[in-house]
Automatic annotation (TrEMBL):
The UniProt record lists the keyword Flavoprotein: yes
Protein name: NADH:flavin oxidoreductase
Molecular-function GO terms, alphabetical: FMN binding; oxidoreductase activity
Lineage: Bacteria, Bacillati, Actinomycetota, Actinomycetes, Mycobacteriales
Domain NADH:flavin oxidoreductase/NADH oxidase N-terminal: 9-227
Keywords recorded for this protein, A-Z: Flavoprotein, Oxidoreductase
Pfam families recorded: Oxidored_FMN
SUPFAM superfamilies: FMN-linked oxidoreductases
Length: 412
């Protein structure tokens, strides 16, 4: 290794907190809280990444309200969840790592059979995979959701989290406001990209007002979502600049894709159609086998596959740190990210395969992830998220928690 190479394993500052290195475990839906509360299983899940060397692990997906859930068993950030969340953060801190809570509202991804209410969107919308109708959210409800993000952030502070990650990606409710395909509003929350960015800016401002400088605030932001006529890089750059000027965020994690249609645009690699069909009700399995690849999309995997888009943000963001995501599997990739101007790098599937990968990369710069991007882990979000090559885990035997046609809830 060249002595002049950047060191991704040195401590680094993220807003008011200092991480022991620049590697973040990306948020991935976990399926380990069947009653919507922290379990020992969930704690062990995050302990494994923390002991494995990451600077910070991210707990996903934490709902800001019951109506914001995208799948059964997700943690709602309220007083009932607080004792378990405190236990989780204590365990992670004991390893020397930091821990973040991903806060989100599912919006068009929510299911009426789960939440009991019709899903909301910026404008009337029909989910193209579930064919579920989403009604237009009222202005008073917009204000309520902003309040819910603030209240959830307070729970995160009380629970001892070091950071919150605001889910502004994948066409969940905040992200859908950014999409001209879904947001056709005529009020101040619609129109051009400045108007469509208002909702995420007000969420970020409310969260910052609540947490102050006690913890870091991150936003996960779509660069583009792969849907024609929806979010694209030119407008995403403007949203990122507006958030940067506001000064409400400590970092932006750049992502791509949606949980509404063609989710493989986010993941890349093999399309696990047979595995998705296997967890579906028998009557739906033939259709999934025939149409699944079309509905999910097919995009080849390549290392650092989000870099070409993400590097467009480096020269225009002045005050907010940037987090690179997508196809990061070895130390060389971490160093490339730093050379390109990114402050932190987030890893998802590679750490599911090998939770101790960071420690092994520190010891041996030549170590590469054994993840082969078969993406069968996507299906395990319906039971307990894990790598299918882990012999200690059960795979594909339980009933599905959500319909695969509505898009996997995994977020990285």
């Amino acid at each position: 290794m060249n002595d002049l190479s950047p060191n991704p394993f040195a401590p680094a500052q993220l807003g008011p907190i200092r991480l022991r290195n620049r590697v973040i475990k990306a948020a991935t839906s976990e399926g380990r809280s069947p009653d919507g509360l922290v379990t020992d299983d969930l704690i062990d899940f995050h302990r494994s990444f923390a002991k494995g060397g990451v600077g910070m692990t991210t707990v996903a997906y934490c709902c800001v309200s019951k109506q914001g859930a995208s799948a059964p068993g997700q943690i709602v950030m309220d007083a009932k969840a607080l004792p378990g969340l405190k236990k989780l953060t204590d365990v992670v801190h004991d390893t020397g790592a930091a821990v973040s809570a991903q806060l989100g509202h599912a919006g068009v991804v929510a299911q009426k059979k789960l939440t009991g209410v019709t899903a909301v969107a910026p404008s009337r919308f029909v989910n193209p995979t579930s064919f579920a109708y989403c009604r237009e959210i009222r202005r008073d409800e917009i204000f309520s959701v902003i309040d819910q993000f603030g209240a959830a952030a307070q729970v995160a502070v009380d629970a001892g989290f070091d950071a919150v990650e605001l889910h502004f990606g994948h066409l969940y409710l905040p992200s859908s406001f950014l999409s001209p395909l879904i947001n056709r509003r005529k009020d101040e929350y619609g129109g051009d990209i400045d108007g469509r960015s208002r909702f995420v800016r007000e969420i970020a401002q409310r969260v910052r007002d609540v947490v102050g400088r006690r913890i870091a605030v991150i936003a996960k932001l779509d660069m583009d979502d792969g849907l024609p006529g929806s979010i694209w890089i030119d407008e995403a750059l403007r949203t990122a600049q507006l958030l940067d000027v506001d000064g409400t965020l400590d970092a932006i994690e750049l992502t791509q894709g949606s949980s509404v249609f063609k989710p493989m645009y986010l993941f890349r690699g093999d399309v696990p159609v047979r595995e998705f069909a296997r967890v579906m009700p028998p009557a739906l399995r033939p259709g999934v086998r025939v149409m699944g690849k079309w509905a999910m999309g097919s995009y080849p995997y390549e290392d650092l596959y989000m870099l070409s888009a993400a590097r467009q943000f480096v020269p225009v963001i002045e005050n907010t740190k940037l987090i690179l995501l997508g196809g990061i599997t070895n130390r060389e990739h971490l160093e490339v990210g730093m050379r390109e101007g990114f402050d932190f790098m987030a890893m998802g599937r590679a750490l599911l395969r090998e939770p101790d990968l960071v420690n092994r990369m520190v010891d041996d710069p030549g170590v590469r992830s054994r993840c082969d991007h078969n993406n069968k882990c996507m299906v395990t979000v319906f039971t307990r998220t894990h790598c299918v090559f882990d012999p200690e885990q059960r795979y594909g035997q339980a009933e599905p928690l959500i319909m695969p046609s509505e898009g996997p809830a995994a977020t990285s």
